[in-house]
TrEMBL record:
Every HD/PDEase domain range: 44-161
Class of the enzyme per the UniProt entry, highest EC level: hydrolase
MF GO annotations: 5'-deoxynucleotidase activity; metal ion binding
Name of the molecule in the record: 5'-deoxynucleotidase
């Protein structure tokens, strides 16, 4: 059976551009080994790359509800937002403090990661990173909300924790998830799952 599909016309790029893109991609692989404080459902430490993947998957799943949102930009924000952690690592939410310069450090590390890239790509990625950090645009606000919600959903899947762990989650990122009726609705559902686990944990420790 012959392949009748038309051939694709994708022109070659310069050797220098190709080298820069692949070098960045190889460096970004470090995110697979950047561990977060949470675990998978089986108790294995979760990587930041896995978190970013599932965040992007959330965007795809909720696409029909994301009216007037630039979906491609939202996906890019989801995939770019934690890339700086490939160098600086993840700081768990309970350990984050005002004035710890975490955002500045992650931006500096993100710039280091982007050094091999062609100038136009580096400029675009930095613009996306800054947009996410500022959390002013609709896409950045949704990305921030989904980021918190994905984390909370992962916490629900983790092996049983102490009641205090679930109590922390009930207050986690409320300012971000309160940005729209949709994210509030998702939050209510996740909070319900969290409360049930907290009650079970409380009964077991009593």
């Amino acid at each position: 059976m012959t392949n009748t599909a038309p051939s694709l016309v994708l022109p070659e790029i310069s050797s220098a551009r190709l080298t820069g893109l692949l070098e960045f991609l190889q460096s970004a692989e470090q995110l697979k080994d950047t561990l977060r404080s949470g675990t998978t459902a089986n108790g294995r430490p979760e990587s930041t790359a896995e978190h970013s993947w599932r965040l992007a998957l959330m965007v795809v799943l909720f696409e029909p509800e994301l009216k007037d949102i630039d979906l491609l930009k939202l996906l890019k924000l989801a995939l770019v937002h934690d890339l700086g952690e490939a160098i600086s690592g993840d700081v768990p939410a309970p350990l984050q403090t005002p004035g710890d310069n975490r955002q500045e450090r992650e931006r500096r590390d993100f710039l280091t990661l982007c050094e091999p890239l062609p100038a136009d790509i580096a400029e675009e990625l930095l613009s996306l990173w800054d947009e996410y950090a500022a959390a002013v645009t609709a896409e950045a606000r949704i990305a921030k909300a989904f980021d918190k919600l994905e984390t909370m959903l992962q916490h629900v899947l983790m092996p049983r924790q102490e009641a205090s762990f679930y109590a922390f989650n009930l207050g986690y990122g409320v300012d971000r998830t309160d940005c729209s009726p949709l994210t509030r609705q998702i939050r209510d559902k996740v909070d319900g799952l969290t409360r049930a686990l907290m009650e079970d944990a409380g009964r077991e420790s009593a």
